[in-house]
Amino acid sequence: MQDVRGFLERLFSAAVAAAQPERVLADFLPEPPTGRTLVLGAGKAASAMARVVDATWPQDMSGLVVTRYGQGMDCGRIEVVEAAHPVPDLAGQQAARRMLDLCRDLNADDLVLALISGGGSALLSLPGGDIELAEKQELNRQLLECGASITEINTLRKHISAIKGGRLAAACHPAKVVSLLISDVPGDDPQVIASGPTLPDPSTAAQARAIIDRYQLTVADSIRQFLLSEQAETPGPADPRFEGDELQLVAAPQISLQAAAAQARSEAVPALILSDCIEGEAREIGKAFAAIARQAKFHNQPIAPPCVILSGGETTVSIKGNGKGGPNTEFNLAMALALAGESGITALACDTDGIDGSEDNAGCIIDETSLARARERGLDPAGYLENNDAWTFFDAIGDLVVTGPTHTNVNDLRAIYVAAPNDPE
Amino acid sequence: MQDVRGFLERLFSAAVAAAQPERVLADFLPEPPTGRTLVLGAGKAASAMARVVDATWPQDMSGLVVTRYGQGMDCGRIEVVEAAHPVPDLAGQQAARRMLDLCRDLNADDLVLALISGGGSALLSLPGGDIELAEKQELNRQLLECGASITEINTLRKHISAIKGGRLAAACHPAKVVSLLISDVPGDDPQVIASGPTLPDPSTAAQARAIIDRYQLTVADSIRQFLLSEQAETPGPADPRFEGDELQLVAAPQISLQAAAAQARSEAVPALILSDCIEGEAREIGKAFAAIARQAKFHNQPIAPPCVILSGGETTVSIKGNGKGGPNTEFNLAMALALAGESGITALACDTDGIDGSEDNAGCIIDETSLARARERGLDPAGYLENNDAWTFFDAIGDLVVTGPTHTNVNDLRAIYVAAPNDPE
């Protein structure tokens, strides 16, 4: 293959396109109600989703959605608010409070369209009880750094919130709530996406308390007290206020992986999907994927080259250094180190939301030349990994993938191309 | 399938059998020399290999091999010494010194059969220069606990040794050395197996020093001084003393994985080999493999159930707690936690040498009932993982796999069975 990088970027584009609301959302919209329509939403895809609803909804409606700073778009009849992610801020808190106000006097013949996507958990943040935003922010910061899974993070978030874990839908009662979901969580469990503001929550306050213990988090007294109060329990699956509600999965990691695989096959490259829900410490998972790529190269297993090995999910980074970078750059730097310049292996690792962690890049690409090019510049690849500084590393060698925000989020895409033995590069 | 555990144990047995010297070694023996034959060897398979040579070699010969305590067997004309593993002791040091003495006055028409297998690095230990055994032991202990790869561990060991990294073969010069190797290292690189006492070493003293820095190891002054001396450099690929030497790979992880796959297929279960060289932190790799097993169950990828997903290699454990257990039990406990009782997934993780880390077990088996059975006994699975106490966990629920020493070593075998949707268990 002449241009492996271009090929891998086309796979990433296909994966992102399959998750983009303007391509997929309209087919999932329900029949209009006899009463009013209220659109509520939160997440990295909220404004892209709201645009589709505004453009296609045949009746009067109003609404409020919250998305990440810099990602708002004009959504006509639906107000768009921007707020902070991944650490919540006052703007998200105000939006959450306004949403609860908006659904206060809904009737049984009204319809709520809930547009829920990844990132909605931080964006739609309203601490319960006497918990201060700063206290919740501090807990959030620790959660993102301690290596907890997204499921654990969300379990804890739900139980210290006044809006998550089904509380928003409960507040909409007796109106019917139709949740339209873009999944960024393993298994596509609806109640986990954006901490499930409109879905019943099977988790308990006791489980939330256990997560604090497991990761030895330092939490404010207000949080400890709230988690021991009755308010901490979320409405569960048996709660009658969810009766008649509906949900639709609009986009998901597996759907995007299939789109990337189809793109590869359309270019005559066999594709193997390993998993849509890879979790774990990015640098360790990078070593395992290097071993799988070697196996393809040397033993034609689990798939013979030329081939592309695809996976989704979301790895995590336990931060120990003070550098810049997200899980995709960290994964790929670890993989490059494990491959040690092995020829014929090229890998893209990008977040489908267009932002890997907190920098400006979706991810990066490595190939057999990455380490050598870095060392020519006097850079020590292992040192950059050690300092959690993979962004700086890939920025220096010009191998970041920068797309800007994609206005959707179905987690990471890893695409590893293994060349055939005689494939010129 | 009625008995998934029995099935997985048969796969493990097939993998071990394919690496057992009495089954495979005789075919690799060279023609006898016109001069004398000297057999030298070190590793977990040394005594099993020496037995085969003693039983089949048609000429006079003598020899000395060193293996792990409790694993020595009567090898007739070849003396067997037992020594400590994974931390070297005086017995291994004395055996190493005797070996160097034995090859001192060899001639050009003599033959040295070098029987090299995993574990040989610790068993054949002779510190260079003024380095005390206790100082080397302490460094070894840190190396095993810091999370360094086996390649890194061996690079450092070679450069502070008087016998590793080709030094033994150099001492045999001008005799011809035929190395018969059982590989336990990624990529089956001969100079890495048992720290390559009979193979040229491309690594340098500078690389060894960098590993000390990378993992912030505390080393004795004698080690620092030796690593800065000329003696620290090992004989490299251009050294003329290696001319005429030969090597044969007798057993390797990939060969054993193929045997396990053949056993599965003979029982009508499709098998997929992911990699023969998985490395990384055991608990993180466990999460990734759980995600791959889920993908098979829910999306028929990378292989449709019923199926078994096989992999080799050697994961590592960065010890933080004070419990008991090796990488296989730790891998499987992490995988069980990530699977959270998911039905229809059963996994064996065992070391082919029969000893997972330092306890009495080869590994363990998990299934959908493992966590529930543990919790019924009041055990907290996550707590056992946190404390690096997976051996105690699996011992308590009766799910250890205990084979005793197998007298060979081609690293770990992970075999994950995913049941078909209607497969009764």
Question: Which helices and strands occur, and which strands form pairs?
Answer:
The structure is a homodimer of 425-residue chains.
Chain A: H1 4-17, H2 21-24, E1 37-42, H3 46-56, E2 62-68, E3 78-83, H4 90-102, E4 111-116, H5 120-123, H6 133-145, H7 150-159, H8 167-172, E5 176-182, H9 205-214, H10 221-227, E6 246-251, H11 253-266, E7 271-278, H12 282-299, E8 307-313, H13 327-339, E9 345-351, E10 363-366, H14 370-376, H15 381-386, H16 390-396, E11 400-401, E12 412-418
Parallel strand pairs in A: 1-2, 1-4, 2-3, 4-5, 5-6, 7-8
Antiparallel strand pairs in A: 8-12, 9-10, 9-12, 10-11
Word description of this protein:
The structure is a homodimer of 425-residue chains. In chain A, 37% of the residues lie in helices and 17% in strands. With 425 residues, chain A is α/β, with parallel strands linked by helices. Chain A has two domains: 4-14 and 253-418, glycerate kinase, domain 1; 21-251, Rossmann fold, CATH 3.40.50. In chain A, the strands form two sheets. A six-stranded parallel beta sheet of chain A has the order 3-2-1-4-5-6, with helices on both faces. A six-stranded mixed beta sheet of chain A has the order 7-8-12-9-10-11, sandwiched between helices. In chain A, helix 12 links the parallel strand 7 and strand 8 (307-313). In chain A, helix 7 (150-159) crosses helix 9 (205-214). The longest helix of chain A has 18 residues, at 282-299. The model of chain A has no long low-confidence stretch (mean pLDDT 94). The interface between A and B is medium-sized, with 31 and 32 residues.
